[in-house]
Amino acid sequence: MPNVNGSIKSVSGSPNKFTSFFNINGLLYNATGTFSVDVPEFTSQNATLTYDDIGALTSYRSFVGHIGSSDIKLTFDNGPIITGALDESINRTINVSGSASWS
Fold it and tell me: Residue 81 sits in which domain range?
């Protein structure tokens, strides 16, 4: 499975939204999504996107995962996975689900 480095972070002032960016062969792939629960603000400037097929990085997709005290992991229903160490720890682990739009 190919993987690329990028970033994922919460959207300031919107406790249930996030955005992520990954550069694949000179093209920027962005997943912008909504968690089913509110989460503390977080940033991972050293996130990794793992995927089988670049075609999976399209459309509107559901995910499940967690934001841990020091890491994040989101697994999309069609296979891609975003993981990363948080730049600053948060005080608890939160199980999350939601959806995101790839562009």
Answer: 3-102
49 burial level (CB within 10 Å; 0-12, 13-18, 19+): buried
- CATH code (residue 84): 2.40.128
Q: How many domains is the chain partitioned into structurally?
A: 1
Q: Walk along the chain (103 residues) in steps of 10 and give the mean pLDDT of each run.
A: 95 95 96 96 97 95 96 97 96 95 96
What's this model's pTM, rounded to 2 decimal places?
Answer: 0.96
Contact 8, 82 (CB under 8 A): yes
Residue type, 80: P
| Tokens matching residue 12 | 């300031």
E strand intervals along the chain: 3-11, 14-24, 27-35, 43-50, 59-67, 71-76, 81-85, 94-102
